[in-house]
Amino acid sequence: MTERLNAFAAAPEAFKAMLEFSARINAISIEHGLQELVKIRASQINGCANCLHMHTADARKHGETEERIYLLSAWRESLLYTPRERAALGWTEALTLVAQTGAPDADYEALKAAFTPAEQVELTLLIGTINSWNRLAVGFRTVHPNDRKAAALAAA
């Protein structure tokens, strides 16, 4: 895959604003491990290898197990996720695929049962943020770090 555009180089001020916004969203009250699961699940749906690489590594650094990371795309069929995690993952899927789902009432009811109103807003902003990062990385074909290493080795 060839990178289409280096977004930071092309629009550093806009990119800096996105980084600052993202940093503020990452400081929300929702536990870090759950934030990473949400970022991984949205990135799986959007096919963002760069973001998957980053967020699976971050999840591991913060104690997430390999098994839960591997089973995340099939979370509905696994008992490894808590009711709170399941509500967040359902909301993540509903909003990441909002044009198809319309954010179903059932997903919102599960969200309401597990999250305070403030946390609902925070989680929704987190989902919007990771979807924006996915669109930047997929749209501009940001090269996955392992692909970059492989290309450098092949050229040597």
Automatic annotation (TrEMBL):
<dbReference type="InterPro" id="IPR029032">
    <property type="entry name" value="AhpD-like"/>
</dbReference>
<dbReference type="Pfam" id="PF02627">
    <property type="entry name" value="CMD"/>
</dbReference>
<dbReference type="InterPro" id="IPR004675">
    <property type="entry name" value="AhpD_core"/>
</dbReference>
<dbReference type="InterPro" id="IPR003779">
    <property type="entry name" value="CMD-like"/>
</dbReference>
<protein>
    <submittedName>
        <fullName>Carboxymuconolactone decarboxylase family protein</fullName>
    </submittedName>
</protein>
<feature type="domain" description="Carboxymuconolactone decarboxylase-like">
    <location>
        <begin position="12"/>
        <end position="94"/>
    </location>
</feature>
<dbReference type="GO" id="GO:0051920">
    <property type="term" value="F:peroxiredoxin activity"/>
</dbReference>
